[in-house]
Amino acid sequence: MRMMSIKMAGLSLGAALVSAFALSAEAQIDRSDAPVEITAKQTEYLQTEGRGVYTGDVVATQGDSKITTDKLTIICAKTDAPANSKQKQQNCDIDKLIAEGNVYYTAPEVKIRGAHAEYDYPTDTITITGDVISSRGDEGVVRGTELVYHVKDGLVKMTAGDKRVLSIFNTNKKTDGSAPASGSTAAPAAPAKTPG
Asked: Which end of the chain is more exposed for a tag (fewer CB within 10 A), N or C?
């Protein structure tokens, strides 16, 4: 998994905010190489902690995928600049995105809703908790308390703690006359008349 590096040292606060939050194509919430764009009513960057916090109608978009939430926190794994570098800068590799409150993840193949989500960049995994509802197109809905979504593989695992996972699947009904629709009975064929 490629990770995004943000150069932090020597930047003014305004430049640090722009650098920290102008996510490159290397950050992923989608399978594409498109850049990640985040909009919110307010943003705050805590440089010494390597954290960025977005609040108020937050929308993070990359390609065809989108995360909407009340609050989004970006956590960086700080690494030192290469030893042969003349710059004494610290790099900030995106490690996690944490979404809190009214979390909604949409991609072309899946829609997931929950109360809290953590997106782990190194493993390309989104874990959503709370009253989680997941749907895949018109196939149906799965409901539980924790969903783990491996973005690259499209693998989804739902659990429900001490309760049971609920799944509702839509069936395909044929209406072209080749077979009876589900739940209906076909009229018996008329007996063949024999010449008399």
From this structure: C
- On whether the CB atoms of residues 13 and 46 are closer than 8 A, the answer is no
DSSP 3-state of 187: coil
Contact residues for 74 (Cβ-Cβ < 8 A; gap 6+): 20, 21, 51, 52, 53, 54, 94, 96, 97
Cβ contact 22:39 at 8 Å: no
**What is the three-class DSSP state of 139?**
coil
0.90 exceeded by the pTM?
A: no
Across-strand partners of 59?
39, 68
The closest of 69, 73, 47 to 59, measured between CA atoms, is 69
Q: Under a CB-based contact definition with an 8 Å cutoff, are residues 96 and 79 in contact?
A: no
